[in-house]
C-alpha cells in the first residue's frame, strides 16, 4: 500500500509587536485625526475664501494678542488719569507723545482704554459663546433625538426667543441677571448668551433629526446601545460639524451686542472695566466740538474686531463646507514617449505575398495577433490562400509566409 508523504507548510514567523512609541503615535494620530483633516482642508482652500480666511485670522489674532497682553501693551491702567510723576493728564487732550491717542473728558488715556477694552470684550465673548454653545447644543441634541412633547415644547420656547430683536432681548436679560455675583462681565455675558442659544439649538436639532435615522444609528440600536450612548458616541460627532463656523460668526455678533449694551448704558459699569461702547457714548459731545480722537479709536477697534471674526467665520465656512469650497487642481503632466511603436516594412513579391525588406515602401503597423478568419455565407472559413484543387493538384512549390506580419 502506497503512502503519501505530506510536507506541512511551516507557519510564518509572527510579526514583531508594535513598540510603545508606535502605539502612542497611532493613538495620537487617531485622536487628532479631525484636526489634521481640518488643517488639510484649510491649506487646500483657494480663491477669495483663502484671502478672507487669512485676513480674518490676522485681525482676530491682533485682537486676541492685545487682549491677552493688555497689562504689558497698555501704557496705563484703564482708570488711570495721572502719569507716573503724579501729574494729571490734560482734559480732552489731543494725541501727543505722552498720550498717543489723546485723553477723554475724564482725563483718561484713550490708548489704554482701547487696549483694556479688548480684554473686556474677549472675556465677554468667551463666556457668552461657551455658555450658549453648551446649552444650545445640548438642548438641540436631546430635542432632535428624543422628539415627542419635549421637542415641541423646546421648539416653541426657542422660536419665541428667536422672534425678539436680539438687542431688546439682551437688554431684558441684562435686567433679569442684575445683582448676580461676578460683576458686570458675567451679567453681560449671560444676557448675550440668551440671544444666541436659539441659533445653536436650531442648527443642531436639524442635523440630529436627519442623523437619528441613519444606518449606523439603527445598527447601534440593534446592538442594544442606550440612547445616551448613541447620542454621545454616534450622533454628537456628526451634528457639530457646522458649530465652529457659527461660533466665529456669533463672536462677531456678541461683540456688536456688547458695544450696543455699553452704548445704551446697560453694559459694564465704567468703574469695573473699560468698554468700547461706553467710551463711544461718552464721546458724542466731543465730536461736535471737533475732538475726534475720543470716538475714532474705539470705533475703529470695534469695526476691525467685528470684521476679523466675520471674515474668519466666512472663510471657515467656505473651506469646510463641501458644497462651497474650492480646491487646488493639479496640472496634468503627460510623460514623454520613451518607447516608440515598432514599424514594419512591407514589400510586395511576385507571388503576391508580403515579405519584409529593407528598402521598400514603409507602413506603420501595430504588432498584434492575426485577425480571425472571415466567415462565408455557408458558415465555412476562408483561408488567406486558396485551397488546392483535388482533381488537378498544383505541384508548384509555394513560398512560406511570415505569420503575424
TrEMBL record:
Keywords: Cell membrane, Membrane, Transmembrane, Transmembrane helix, Transport. It holds the Pfam family BPD_transp_1. It is a multi-pass membrane protein. It comes from the Bacteria. Residues 355-365, 380-399 have a biased composition (Low complexity). Residues 118-313 form the ABC transmembrane type-1 domain. It is found in: Cell membrane. The chain crosses the membrane at residues 51-74, 124-146, 153-177, 183-201, 291-312. Residues 355-405 are annotated as: Disordered. CDD domains: TM_PBP2. Belongs to the binding-protein-dependent transport system permease family. This is ABC transporter permease.
Amino acid at each position: 500500500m502506497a503512502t503519501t508523504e505530506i510536507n506541512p507548510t511551516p507557519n510564518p514567523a509572527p510579526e514583531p509587536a508594535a513598540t510603545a512609541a508606535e502605539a502612542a503615535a497611532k493613538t495620537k494620530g487617531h485622536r487628532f485625526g479631525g484636526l489634521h483633516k481640518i488643517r488639510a482642508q484649510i491649506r487646500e482652500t483657494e480663491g477669495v475664501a483663502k484671502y478672507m480666511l487669512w485676513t480674518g485670522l490676522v485681525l482676530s489674532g491682533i485682537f486676541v494678542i492685545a487682549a491677552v497682553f493688555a497689562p504689558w501693551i497698555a501704557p496705563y491702567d484703564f482708570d488711570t488719569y495721572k502719569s507716573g510723576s503724579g501729574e494729571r493728564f490734560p482734559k480732552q487732550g489731543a494725541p501727543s507723545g505722552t498720550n498717543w491717542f489723546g485723553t477723554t473728558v475724564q482725563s483718561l488715556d484713550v490708548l489704554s482704554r482701547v487696549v483694556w477694552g479688548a480684554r473686556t470684550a474677549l472675556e465677554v465673548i468667551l463666556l457668552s459663546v461657551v455658555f450658549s454653545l453648551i446649552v444650545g447644543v445640548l438642548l438641540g441634541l436631546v430635542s432632535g433625538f428624543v422628539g415627542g412633547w419635549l421637542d415641541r415644547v423646546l421648539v416653541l420656547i426657542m422660536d419665541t426667543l428667536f422672534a425678539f430683536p436680539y438687542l431688546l432681548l439682551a437688554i431684558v436679560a441684562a435686567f433679569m441677571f442684575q445683582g448676580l455675583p461676578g460683576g458686570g462681565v458675567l451679567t453681560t455675558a449671560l444676557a448675550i448668551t440668551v440671544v444666541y442659544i436659539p441659533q445653536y439649538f436650531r442648527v443642531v436639532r436639524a442635523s440630529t433629526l436627519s442623523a437619528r435615522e441613519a444606518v449606523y444609528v439603527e445598527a447601534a440600536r440593534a446592538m442594544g446601545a442606550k440612547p445616551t450612548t448613541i447620542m454621545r458616541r454616534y450622533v454628537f460627532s456628526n451634528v457639530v460639524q457646522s458649530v465652529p463656523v457659527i461660533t466665529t460668526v456669533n463672536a462677531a455678533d456678541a461683540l456688536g451686542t456688547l458695544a450696543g449694551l455699553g452704548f445704551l448704558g446697560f453694559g459694564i459699569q465704567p468703574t469695573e472695566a473699560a468698554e468700547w461702547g461706553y467710551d463711544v457714548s461718552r464721546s458724542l459731545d466731543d465730536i461736535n466740538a471737533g475732538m475726534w480722537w475720543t470716538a475714532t479709536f474705539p470705533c475703529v477697534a470695534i469695526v476691525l474686531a467685528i470684521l476679523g471674526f466675520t471674515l474668519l467665520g466666512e472663510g471657515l465656512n467656505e473651506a469646510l463646507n463641501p458644497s462651497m469650497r474650492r480646491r487646488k487642481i493639479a496640472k496634468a503632466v503627460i510623460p514623454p514617449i520613451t518607447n516608440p511603436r515598432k514599424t514594419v516594412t512591407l514589400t510586395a513579391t511576385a507571388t503576391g505575398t508580403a515579405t519584409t525588406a529593407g528598402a521598400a515602401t514603409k507602413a506603420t503597423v501595430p504588432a498584434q495577433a492575426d485577425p480571425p478568419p472571415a466567415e462565408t455565407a455557408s458558415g465555412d472559413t476562408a483561408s488567406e490562400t486558396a485551397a488546392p484543387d483535388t482533381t488537378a493538384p498544383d505541384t508548384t512549390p509555394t513560398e512560406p509566409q511570415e505569420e503575424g506580419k
